[in-house]
Design goal:
Distance between the termini: 38 Å
Largest sheet: 6 strands, parallel
Helix content: 55-70%
CATH architecture of the largest domain: 2-Layer Sandwich
Low-confidence stretches: none
CATH class of the largest domain: Alpha Beta
Number of helices: 15
CATH topology of the largest domain: Beta Polymerase, domain 2
Shape: elongated
Order of helices and strands: EHHEEHHEHHHHEHEHEHEHEEHHH
């Protein structure tokens, strides 16, 4: 048996292939059951996210093709469609790959933390379905500790590398705690949703989402615990807003200098932090000239993001050194574990021979056979059976003039090498 992993990810397969190979949560138990139903598979964990689908197994050495065929068949795909995008790893390379995934080094955005939670969910699902035993349990638990060490000992996740995250991080730098503040988010697309989720994770006091389609605003508001308003209500909402982040597809500015001045007067010049993530811009550039307004554009944040990406790439080199050390540690454990299994198999086989020989001897004694002859036959039978395979191997080694194997067999049988 060996460790095996195979799968596809954002580096090897386009999104239309990744979509077809993804496992829905409701499919996991059935899929794991089918994998464990294969004679070659002892343990399995399936990891399926928007950017990757991977299968980890403790399985027979030659089971990769069978599992790949199953993956294609399960999703109704032609094998030829899937094969060009599949990658495989065996034994210590499985550990190296999983440790990189858990640490965020194999992600679309280096150092992103979400994948670790997704790995833990996949592991929990497999464990709940009795698909995990000693080897995969050790492998995944080790990957979690490696990811924690990488985050603790390097700067891999210290700096934001998306404009949405950068906007929220900058607001936290300016205000400190956000729990007493109100954020006005203009737009209801993917970027604003990311901003809203980051603000939510920072315990923002309140959020309002303004959008031309109030239905879309309400749908997003329900997901992130915010209020929803029509976009024409932005000027009156501005009075309450400590943070304004905008990202729409509008061709004309949504927020101008006049409306902002009016809001500042009503706020008694309490400052407003504004981030315009839109191209073309949603906020007139003149707004930035107002006292008590701190306005940043998408270009300002991209400079921050680019610098942070460079720092993460440096951190990734340090993280890889940690991973190399941890792979060596896991590989040593795996060798020890596998050798224990082989020793157990050897002892079990010899124990079976012994019990069979004892059973025959006792039967003969009950039939009043001569005890001395019974003992001699028992010893002869055991000797012949225990020496049968080593004798065949010794003959083969002698025929092939394999000196190393000859010495090994002599050592095992405690024979004098002279």
């Amino acid at each position: 048996m060996a460790l095996l992993s195979l799968g596809i990810n954002h580096q090897t397969a386009p999104v239309d292939i990744r979509e077809k190979v993804a496992f829905a949560p409701a499919q996991m138990r059935e899929a794991l059951g089918e994998l464990l139903g294969m004679p070659a598979v002892n343990e399995s964990v399936i990891v399926s996210t928007c950017n990757r689908t991977e299968i980890y197994c403790n399985a027979a050495d030659d089971s990769g093709d069978v599992i790949t065929d199953w993956l294609a068949e399960y999703h109704g795909l032609n094998n030829g469609t899937l094969l060009p995008h599949i990658y495989r790893h065996v034994d210590h390379e499985v550990a190296r790959h999983l440790f990189r995934v858990a640490s965020g080094l194999d992600s679309m955005v280096i150092g992103e933390p979400q994948i670790l939670g997704q790995l833990k969910e996949s592991y929990d699902q497999a464990r709940g379905g009795n698909a995990v035993n000693s080897i995969l349990d050790r492998l995944f638990q080790h990957s979690f500790s490696v990811a924690k060490r990488v985050r603790t000992d390097t700067e891999i996740g210290a700096n934001p590398v998306s404009v949405a995250f950068a906007a929220v991080s900058l607001s936290k730098q300016i205000f400190g705690n956000l729990d007493s503040l109100h954020a006005l988010l203009i737009g209801a697309g993917e970027t604003i949703e990311l901003v809203a989720r980051h603000l939510q994770s920072q315990q923002i006091g309140a959020m309002t989402i303004a959008n031309r389609s109030v239905d879309r605003a309400r749908a997003l508001a329900e997901r992130v615990g915010a209020d929803a308003v029509q976009i024409n209500q932005v000027p009156e909402q501005l009075v309450r807003a400590d943070i304004v982040i905008s990202s729409t597809a509008s061709q004309l500015p949504i927020l101008g200098k006049g409306a902002t001045e009016s809001a500042l007067k009503q706020r008694k010049h309490r400052p407003i932090f504004m981030v315009d993530l839109a191209v073309p811009r949603d906020i007139e550039p003149e707004v930035g000239s107002l006292q008590d307004i701190y306005l940043y554009t998408v270009d300002d944040l991209r400079n921050v993001v680019d610098e942070n990406l460079r720092s993460r790439e440096v951190a990734a080199e340090a993280a890889q050194e940690i991973i190399d050390l941890e792979v060596a540690a896991f590989t040593q454990w795996l060798k020890t574990h596998q050798s224990a299994d082989h020793i157990r198999e050897l002892r079990d086989g010899v124990e079976t021979l012994k019990q069979q020989a004892i059973a025959r001897a006792l039967t003969q004694l009950r039939q009043d056979a001569d005890p001395q002859q019974v003992i001699e036959r028992l010893a002869n039978d055991l000797t012949k059976k225990l020496l049968h395979k080593p004798t065949l191997e010794m003959r083969k080694a002698l025929q092939e003039d394999d000196a190393a194997r000859i010495e090994l067999l002599k050592s095992l049988l405690s024979l004098d090498s002279q």
